[in-house]
Amino acid sequence: MAVVKIKVQGVSKIFPQPKGSFEAVKDFSLQVNEGEFLCLVGPSGCGKSTILRMLAGLITPSQGVISIQEGGSGDPLQNIVFQEYAIFPWKTVAQNVGFGLAMRGVPRTRRQAVVTEWLRKVGLLKFAEAYPHQLSGGMKQRVSIARAFANNPEILLMDEPLGALDAQIRAILQEELIRIWEEQRKTVVYITHSIEEAVFLGDRVILMTAHPGTYKTEFPIPFSRPRKAPLMSHPDFGRLTYAIWQELRVEVERTMEQQKWL
Amino acid sequence: MALEGRKLSRETKDRLLALGFPLGLLFLWEGLVRMDALDARFFPAPSTVLQALWILIVKGELLGKFWRLPALITAGNWSEGLRTISEGHLWISLFRIFSGFLLGAVPGIVLGVIMGMNRTVRIAIDPVVSAVYVLPKIAILPLVMLIFGIGELSKVVIVAIASFFLILINTMAGVRDIEPIFFEAAKNYGAGRRQMFWQVIIPGALPIIFAGLRLSLGTALIVIIAAEFVAAKHGLGFLIWYSWQTLLTENMFAGLLVIMILGAAFTRGLQTIEHWVMPWRREPAPSLIEKGEPGGKRN
């Protein structure tokens, strides 16, 4: 029996607004096992990012309970890989990757060793002293991913980390990401728009409803690991993504209806 | 090859044009004065202005009797040396500008960061700042002199006040302009208050803080010249005003020339500091850009 790492019970989030209030998340529950790669898919504006920020403790739920099983290893509990390029433009690639370590007071020599290791893993070793504005979008997001992994948190929270990239770069980074994760096997909550991405990366895909976001249904992903790109051409992969799309489509259409009235 | 040659000659042409046109204007001016088409009493020829500048220097009016310095220093007579230098109009104006600038910039940055970060403080102080900001600072010179006397202090204070508000407003804008995602990221990766300040707020706001420094240095120059017009016996402003009153127009033009050089030097100096303090704002090295990987915004 797998150990439950994250437990979310009946969580709602209401944001006060000038006119009334906005319910971003409604009665949402979820369990994530230790070492599981969980993907959260839903139409835009369904509160996925709000859930992630609540898991990170950046905002507090209006209702319900979030409990996270701490490993007690002294490592940080969780880190986020952000949607946009949230790496610091005023820090070099190496300083960005080592940011979490520096904040925790990890000594310089140890920090450099970890940073170098991760720069090598994401193929940015020769860009260590470059600044983010000198990098392409794909390279920036590699820095963002390396920053999270280098800090060695128990849980990785990923908020559409590849969302802003074009389809080709995205495909490459998906493969890199899954290769790195399969080495590390950390608990991951991964938010994405893309069903293909969710099925390719995840152990389980959870679908959310249109606004206000709540749990709709979930799909276990049966494909064995390690996963490689050819998986995407497998008939079962197509059948599964289509089945998920059939469910998601209803919610996307509802979202479009809602937006008409806004 | 032929194309490259043409491109190079075009660059040379541009440079010749940029240098040649102003130079041509100066020659035209010189010529018109010599032909008596332009009244030399109002518009002394450039050569006369340069000559006047030279005389101001050798008489020790502009830079003080700086040739006496080595002897005074070896004799250990520092106070006399300082007095000698402070007789130069340029040095005394520079002293007023920089001490006032510093006196305004430091509290301006500190309060600007506080107002940028803290909503309560901002809402309380913002109306006061906005009200005083629109006031032309030279207008309060009489008040400043009433409080700080007619000596050196009042000139320093008026420059400090002028710099303070510009830097305060820019620093506040710079801090508020930082993307919230950087605060979230820093917090998520364990940054404390002090780390947040030095790792996120200061570098994040620095580009706009520098814009404020640039503006306020320009304003400091305006304010000190104006103050010296009316309330000083030394300084570049006094030199221009006094030269006008005594109809020594070539000295007046020499003073204007010195101020132009000063303004250009300030701009250049700040650019150098900016370049050095914000290495991430330097132009990207083209070799570092990965070709054929578009997507995403560039900072």
What is the number of strand segments of chain B? 0
Percent helix range of chain B: over 70%
For the record, give the distance between the C-alpha atoms at the N and C termini of chain B, rounded to a whole number.
36 Å
Distance between the termini of chain A: 46 Å
Strand content of chain B: under 5%
Shape of chain B: globular
Poorly predicted segments of chain A: none
Biggest interface, and residues per chain?
A-B, 40 and 33 residues
Order of helices and strands of chain B: HHHHHHHHHHHH
Contiguous uncertain segments of 5+ residues of chain B: 285-299
Question: Structural class, judged by helices and strands of chain B?
Answer: mainly alpha
Shape of chain A: globular
> Given the structure, what is the number of helices of chain B?
12
User: What share of residues of chain A is helical?
Assistant: 25-40%
Mean pLDDT level of chain B: 88
Structural notes for this entry:
Chain A starts with a strand and ends with a helix. In chain A, strands 5-6-7-3-8-9 form a 6-stranded mixed β-sheet, with helices on both faces. In chain A, strands 2-1-4 form a 3-stranded antiparallel β-sheet, with helices on one face. The longest helix of chain A has 26 residues, at about 235-260. In chain A, a hairpin with a 4-residue loop joins strand 1 (about 5-15) and strand 2. Chain A is an alpha/beta fold. Chain A has 8 helices and 9 strands. Chain B has 12 helices and no strands. By secondary structure, chain B is an all-alpha fold. In chain B, helix 2 crosses helix 12 and helix 10 (about 195-230) packs antiparallel against helix 12 (about 250-275). Chain B is globular, with a radius of gyration of 25 Å. Chain B has helices at about 1-35, 45-60, 70-75, 80-85, 90-115, 120-135, 140-150, 150-175, 180-190, 195-230, 235-245, 250-275.
